[in-house]
Write a structure and sequence with these properties.
The structure holds two protein chains of two kinds. Helix content of chain A is 0%, strand content 49%. In chain A, β5 and β6 form a beta hairpin. Chain A starts with a strand and ends with a strand. Chain B is mostly beta strands. In chain B, strands 2, 4, 5, 6, 9, 10 and 11 form a seven-stranded mixed beta sheet that branches. Chain B has a four-stranded antiparallel beta sheet with strand order 1-3-8-7, with no helix packed on it. In chain B, β7 and β8 form a beta hairpin. Chain B is globular, with a radius of gyration of 13 Å. In chain B, 32% of the residues are buried. Classes of the chains: A mainly beta, B mainly beta. At the A-B interface, β5 of A face β4 and β10 of B.
Chain lengths: 114, 106
């Protein structure tokens, strides 16, 4: 069974940093590109970042470019999202998902507030 | 960046109705459109990809069509479990979600 489990969310002050993790199981993680997608409370879905299977290709949404960094460790079956210079508008549930977005984690909640 | 306009934003319908949602991309995306269902408090579920291909486990009352810039998603005979929010997603150039359609019981 494909499983994606996010962690690392929490309450953080504006301007601070936070790092999310997503541990994958049930499939060959190193064969798949991975995404981060977020959903602000009561709002729609927003794609955030993508990393290819071997980390050669990395893309970001304009709203997070320069502040967020996606990375992965295929030996640990783990995807990461390093978030810096956080803003209130980054408050959301952050999901990791496979490239085709056919499998999603349950999400990690990030709240940016003073 | 490719923009995706989804309509309507909300829709009221009755059990057994046929409903159609649409998404328009700001440029040609070939058939790189997917459709998702999200129920409150739950993770989005992929229903259709490549505009018209049903994901494994998707009931046959769901269908999708379109190519280029205009796409549609149809539920042929609404069941109680279909009342949810639906999103389209273009995957031709990076990824962009539509704004969502909330399907409610009339």
């Amino acid at each position: 069974e494909v499983q994606l489990v996010e962690s690392g969310g929490g309450l953080v002050q504006p301007g601070r940093s936070l790092k999310l993790s997503c541990v994958a199981s049930g499939f060959t993680f190193s064969n798949y590109g991975m995404n981060w997608i977020r959903q602000a409370p009561g709002k729609g879905l927003e794609w955030v970042a993508y990393i290819s299977s071997g980390s050669s290709y990395i893309y970001y949404a304009e709203t997070v470019k320069g502040r967020f960094t996606i990375s992965r460790d295929n030996a640990k079956n783990t995807l990461y999202l390093q978030m810096t210079s956080l803003r209130s508008e980054d408050t959301a549930l952050y999901y990791c998902a496979r490239k085709l977005m056919d499998a999603w984690g349950q999400g990690a909640s990030v709240t940016v507030s003073s | 960046a490719i923009q995706v306009t989804q309509s309507p934003t909300s829709l009221s319908a009755s059990l057994g109705d046929r409903v159609t949602l649409t998404c328009r991309a700001s440029q040609d995306i070939n058939n790189k459109m997917a459709w998702y269902q999200q129920k409150p408090g739950e993770v989005p579920q992929l229903l259709i990809y490549y505009a018209s291909t049903l994901q494994s486990g998707t009931p046959s009352r769901f269908s999708g069509s379109g190519a280029g810039t205009d796409f549609s998603f149809t539920i042929s005979h609404l069941q109680s479990e279909d009342f949810a929010t639906y999103y389209c997603l273009q995957g031709y150039s990076l990824w962009t979600f539509g704004g969502g359609t909330k399907l409610e019981l009339k």
